[in-house]
Amino acid sequence: MSSSSSSSSSSPILRRLPLGSQWPCMNPFLFCAHHLDAYPKGNGAYGPDAALLAGRNLGHDFSGQDGWNMYHGHTVPGFPVHPHRGFETITLVRQGMLDHADSLGAMARFGEGDVQWMTAGSGVQHTEMFPLLHTDRPNPLQLFQIWLNLPASHKMDPAHFTMYWNETIPRLHHHDAAGHTTTVTVVAGPLPGAEAPLPPPPASWAAQAGSDVAVWIIELAPGAQWQLPAATNKEAVRVLYWYEGDGLSVENKAEQAQTALQLDSQHAVQLHNTGQQTAALLLLQGVPIDEPVARYGPFVMNTEAEIHQAISDYRRTQFGGWPWPESAPVHGPTPRRFARRPGKTEDECPPAAA
């Protein structure tokens, strides 16, 4: 994570970094991608009602043409079957729908604020497809995918599927002196004033005592002010990503553009939305995993020898095989959110609104 500029020693802002297609991350996080696609109406087969050949490299389309990508999909946008080992994926869908299937036998359609947390552990295959369900209107999609490393002691634990429904995710609703609202969605890590945090997967670094992992979405209404509290553990590192909105002041200093801010985690930081639109920020925080990292594509281990072993194991076992008849399954035309857990035959759906 290289710095584009530094701040004075008195400032809680340690570095400012530009946002690209893959956002800059710090240990224990490995990767953060913000997928923002203005998909058109669907063609009735879950793909875009648009010509796909001109200007797109189908199977590897990150062109952003017309404001959207096909990624590795040929007909439906998304990521057909692929393997992982040695880390976790946290997928936050802010808008639109995502269809998941994996080698554990789990499947899900989730979106509109839902979160899936998947521990790859010793190995898993999965798909992430973005079906365009609406044929009469556009199908906008916004999601984050975050990779969180696993410590060596848990890299070879069994894979694990976790689903957090939007209706169950803790939130803080803060009203400042002027009555402006800040909402903080707490995917991981406790936050004073919010409900008790959801339990992370058992092998996760977030489940280990003292890791101080936090994954929060902070949304400030126009004019809103809120103080981001200091981290609990003095060893925690934190990065704040301002990704939406037209005005933000941090510690009474205006930021000139959407950016990533590495912050001193031991300082509370005052945030103020100075714009006319909602300001949205993602916070990633955690104590670093003090271990070497070896990476090769979808595998994250501690040594090159372990990477070679992961490749060999995948070629030999396919991490349990692929139980689905297609490499990019889509779960039908109904825009119903659900999950089917490994080994289960009945669907789980979000709780009914109170």
From TrEMBL:
It comes from the Bacteria. Residues 217-320 form the Pirin C-terminal domain. Pfam families: Pirin (PF02678), Pirin_C (PF05726). InterPro entries: Pirin (IPR012093), Pirin_C_dom (IPR008778), Pirin_N_dom (IPR003829), RmlC-like_jellyroll (IPR014710), RmlC_Cupin_sf (IPR011051). Residues 70-148 form the Pirin N-terminal domain. Residues 324-354 are annotated as: Disordered. Belongs to the pirin family. This is Pirin family protein.
